[in-house]
């Protein structure tokens, strides 16, 4: 096989795995193609977290099988990992099943496929798969940096520990070297990811009374990691995604205060605002405690700022809510709505509970009907949209540094192409104003709103400034939905 197409599913952790697989397949001499019809091998990198994600990945397989009968199909990622044994016999549509315990074994999968075999390869979940990533699947200038794999938190609804195993952390120097390497390649934004960044370096620590106290011991390994990242010279951003609220390492705040490159942005999945539901999720926090954490982050990180680097508005908070958890009463749902309105997160994702075998919640009584779970999630989304719009309004008139992701409209009536040739610009593309999409410090990739950047196409300086992967300074002029309308300040 000489060519492969990648069909990516799931979370940012799975995306990093896919980027590693791309480099390994290229190392084996294979070429990545942009259309599945041009590929001898179709890699479906699956997600196996919840029912809807599993269905999405299986549908992708069935569609590919039907559309490309002559191509080989490799089923990789978390769904393949979770059900490898079953798929070995029950999923003939896949020509290979490849778990994600050790991504280097992809070489064996390809050799076996080229020999006409049907490899089923699943290896123990050990270490954190890392390696070369020639191609990043984010927009230019941004990368995910996986610092841990697996999880010991065992939230009762979650299948991740079943799929990815126990917590494993990457060594500090390996993470620092990866960031330095990507910085040299022009990456500006580094999004630190794991199942729970707060557990970084706490390998082997189990949840429970002893474990929970160990989790809060200082200095936290995450603080030490951030100090080492802070020692890297250069102009860049660092964003922290997924910090478990029960053991948020407060000792990282002074490090963040001392280095404006570490953004005042925190993704903290609270999941519920009702203490009984939080408890039955196998979490030890309380709604009051979670609310105090948000207040602390916003007060601690609210000192006066210079132009578009430091926020005057305090920390930006993203969170997640899980609606319809077994036993969640109408009153509990109301408590979560009140909690949302109290903490006013900038962004949140609201999901409905998915019955997942091998999790503690799987056998819990008092299931909540799907329709009610959907209603509760919809109610939270409604509340969140209003909160997001109100918080975004406070950015109007302010100036921010924005990382340009892509250019939407770039041609004035007499445009020329890169080789200096006259460019036939279709009528509907003619405009005096260029449009680009970018993100400010309070907007994470893939999940939050963005900045629409307007610039003058007749102004060569402005046109030259708008480059995907580079940053510009903008002024916010309006809010449109969950996005900000901004003008370029070149
Ligand atoms: S912290 Fe909880 S929800 Fe997140 S991956 Fe770990 S067990 Fe799952």
CATH topology of the largest domain: pyruvate-formate lyase- activating enzyme
Helical content class = 25-40%
Report the β-strand fraction as a percent range. Answer: 15-25%
* Domain unit count: 3
Biggest β-sheet, characterized?
A: 6 strands, parallel
Query: Under the CATH scheme, which class of the largest domain?
Result: Alpha Beta
Mean pLDDT: 92
Number of strand elements: 19
- The CATH architecture assignment of the largest domain turns out to be Alpha-Beta Horseshoe
Multimer state: single chain
Counting DSSP H or I runs of 4 or more residues, the number of helices is: 14
What is the CATH homology-level superfamily of the largest domain? Answer: tm_1862 like domain
Coarse morphology: globular
Strand order in the largest sheet: 2-1-3-4-5-6
Uncertain residue ranges: 306-311
Termini distance? 49 Å
| Structural class estimated from helices and strands | alpha/beta
Instruction: Give every kind of bound small molecule, once each.
Output: iron/sulfur cluster
Features:
490 residues; alpha/beta; Rossmann fold; pyruvate-formate lyase- activating enzyme; 3 domains; 6-stranded parallel beta sheet; 14 helices; 33% helix; 21% strand; globular; binds iron/sulfur cluster
Explained architecture:
The chain has 490 residues and is an alpha/beta fold. The chain has three domains: 119 residues, Methylthiotransferase, N-terminal domain (Rossmann fold); 252 residues, pyruvate-formate lyase- activating enzyme (Alpha-Beta Horseshoe), CATH 3.80.30.20; 90 residues. The chain contains 14 helices and 19 strands. The strands form four sheets. Strands 2-1-3-4-5-6 form a six-stranded parallel sheet, sandwiched between helices. A six-stranded parallel sheet has the order 7-10-11-12-13-14. Helix 9 links the parallel strand 11 and strand 12. Helix 6 packs parallel to helix 8 and helix 11 packs parallel to helix 12. Bound molecules: iron/sulfur cluster (SF4). Iron/sulfur cluster binds next to helix 5.
